Amino acid sequence: MALEFSRPGFQKSLLGETLNWSASQAAGNDQLGDMPEWKLEDLYPSLDAPELDRDIKKLQSDAKTFHDSYHGKLNDIVDGGAGGSDLARIVREYEALQDLAGRIGSFAGLLYAGDTSNPERAKFYGDIQEKLTEISSSLLFFSLELNRLEDSVVDACCADPDLQVYRPWIDDLRKEKPYQLEDELEQLFHEKSVTSRGAWNRLFNETITSLKFDVGGESLSLEPTLNGLLESDPEKRRQAAEALAEVFQSNLRLFTLITNTLAKDKEISDRWRGFGDVADERHLANRVEGTVVDALVRAVTEKYPAIPHRYYALKARWLGKDKIAHWDRNAPLPHQSSKVISWSDAQNIVLDAYSGFDPQMSDIASKFFQSGWIDAPVRSGKSPGAFSHPTVPSAHPYILLNYQGKPRDVMTLAHELGHGVHQVLANEQGALMAPTPLTLAETASVFGEMLTFKELLSRTTNPRERKALLASKVEDMINTVARQIAFYQFERNVHIERRSGELTSEKIGEIWLEVQRESLGPSVRLEAGYETFWSYIPHFIHSPFYVYAYAFGECLVNSLYAVYENADEGFVEKYFSMLKAGGSKSYHELLHPFGLDAREPDFWSMGLSVIERMIDDLESMED
């Protein structure tokens, strides 16, 4: 119930190594203009606010009352299916508890994300996590007892209109029934999470934000150093890459220990619950069949030669080289514009793009700018990358960025605003059904990126700048599709190997290089030190196997956007209905109105062909 750093969109750019530029590398604040910092007062005024203390005490009291009233009594209450209305009332009480807990946890997590180096905030975040874990432990019984009810009893109860509203949530919950443990074991797993997975996650976060890198005599944190890989000067890119490798290497024992520990922790949980494949738990959480993910992986890997290999061969020629080093992958093109895009211009570009699709989309996105829901500037100690955190339906989402005025920063803004719009629209489903499985969580964000890319392209008339913009989009799509599938394969190999014993840093590095060579192709030279670059990627730590959701979302949106471009009648209405559904419908049901089915063999090929055609266009633009 506390803030999860695996929410849709979190650190997307970090995963692709295409982070925003630091102030020293891109533009001063005078060029960027005034940028907003979020107003967390909408949740609570401060970490010592009386309102927060009041809500914590209320949550503790209400959770105890809920436990005392219903623990061990659910079967008697439903009485063979006759208690549908009573069960609906209990579910509503449970939902209210989830909303209040989510509000408290979101405030603590967002405050911590704003400055992870602040000891007071770190302690506050840890204390809140412990309190929420203790409170939620007393509520574990409800979902466990609900899943022990007979199917016939649940069906009879759901015939009541009041409970029928919650049928999608109940059906999703019952999918977890085969992997459910005894109550005492579930409570032990839950309570120990604070000192096991949660503690290792926090150690990773605080280690990453504390790292310093010597680049050209300047001491930088992780984000500005990664941003050096976007410099136009190849020497500066090399210096940044070597600084990254040096620091990662010096901390490799710790990152290896964290990886081994968390992989073993997951193996223990999977074994006790009865999951077979290392990614089965993620597939269940995403409400997607493993066979569908396997089909996606096959489709992407089969296209490695036609997409990333072909593109990087093109880029090597553009840069006048036979091969490019790994630090050149996201280098700007020789004639790429260095124009700084101010914050106000970025706002206008994205809102114009959204408005061109439908004014309602722009109206919702405007609230984020007007109401203090965005934290945009780079600050010391602030979490790197970007995310949109939905908080709870009784409040509103918050967006974190590290904006520095490049076109990619505008695309990141569009991406996170897409999440934000989706989260606002889904809030009508309530705390239990608003969260969207990762299979569709990236839909609105990637769709928003595509709208904004088209808007940027329409504003660019110089042929060389159009070529650079198109190349940048192709790179982002490769990072989102091919690179994330390579990450997924890396994770699979690490977790499978870990089942046979601890992995050395060297072994993990070998696995990393193997999947990178396969995905990047012969035109990218992996220099010494790159074998350590697996160590800083947060999704491997916070949410194993999350990464394939990006490829899923990109390919899905490519197909969806093709339907939109073909002027499908009623597309806008169907699109908003899909977003409003939140997690109340499966991805099969939500894609059906568009004539799309991700279970069809050619579905993924259709999405990947969009990227291929863009590369075709780039080849036709060769000087």
Describe this entry's structure for a reader.
It contains 31 helices and seven strands. It has helices at residues 12-15, 29-32, 50-70, 74-78, 84-114, 119-137, 140-148, 151-158, 161-164, 167-174, 183-192, 197-210, 222-227, 234-250, 252-273, 280-286, 290-302, 305-318, 343-357, 359-370, 407-426, 438-441, 443-458, 463-480, 482-498, 505-520, 539-542, 548-565, 571-580, 587-591, 603-620, and strands at 213-215, 218-220, 324-325, 374-375, 387-389, 398-400, 524-525. The strands form three sheets. The protein has a three-stranded mixed β-sheet with strand order 4-6-5, with helices on both faces. A hairpin with a 2-residue loop joins β1 and β2 (218-220).
Strand order of the largest sheet: 4-6-5
Tell me about the biggest sheet?
A: 3 strands, mixed
Helix run count: 31
Described by the principal axes of the CA atoms, the overall outline is globular
**Radius of gyration using CA atoms only:** 24 Å
Average pLDDT taken over every residue: 91
User: Which structural class do you get from the secondary structure elements?
Assistant: mainly alpha
| CA-CA gap between termini | 54 Å
Q: Could you estimate the helical fraction of the residues in percent?
A: 55-70%
The amount of beta strand, in percent, is: under 5%
Low-confidence stretches: 1-28
Can you count the beta strands? 7
